[in-house]
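Dear H.,

Thanks for agreeing to be a second pair of eyes. The structure we're designing against is below in token form, covering all 127 positions.
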């Protein structure tokens, strides 16, 4: 039996706990920015370091062609992408993979807080 260890499991658990508390307190129906602010409060109270927003350069070949704003990079290792939509779709996961590549990170948590039950997807970029 192959046992696979989750990347950044403990940190992910802390982040998801903060997200769950935000969802329980606020519920669905708000704009993404409201959830981002609330999650920032929760992450800070949990003692987690995060940046909001963080710009990462986007390169094509060796040239920087622009930059992108990551919602909430946490502890410099996990990108939290918040959504306030009907459902997490494949394009959200593909976009998270692109963000990970641009930021040279391995794990993104795509969290949708706009549903009656919180929706969470882990996106892992293998190197």
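And this is the sequence the design step returned. I haven't edited it by hand at all.
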């Amino acid at each position: 039996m192959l046992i696979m260890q989750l990347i950044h499991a403990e940190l992910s658990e802390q982040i998801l706990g903060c997200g769950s508390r935000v969802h329980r307190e606020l519920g669905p129906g708000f704009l993404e920015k409201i959830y981002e602010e609330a999650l920032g409060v929760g992450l800070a109270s949990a003692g987690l370091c995060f940046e909001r927003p963080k710009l990462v350069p986007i390169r094509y070949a060796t040239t920087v062609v622009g930059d992108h704003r990551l919602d909430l990079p946490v502890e410099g290792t996990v990108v939290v992408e918040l959504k306030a939509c009907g459902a997490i779709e494949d394009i959200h996961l593909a976009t998270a993979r692109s963000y990970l590549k641009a930021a040279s990170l391995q794990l993104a948590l795509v969290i949708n807080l706009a549903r009656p039950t919180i929706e969470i997807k882990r996106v892992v970029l293998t190197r």
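Two observations from my side: The mean pLDDT is 92. The beta strands are 54-60, 63-70, 72-74, 78-83, 107-112, 119-124.

Warmly,
E.
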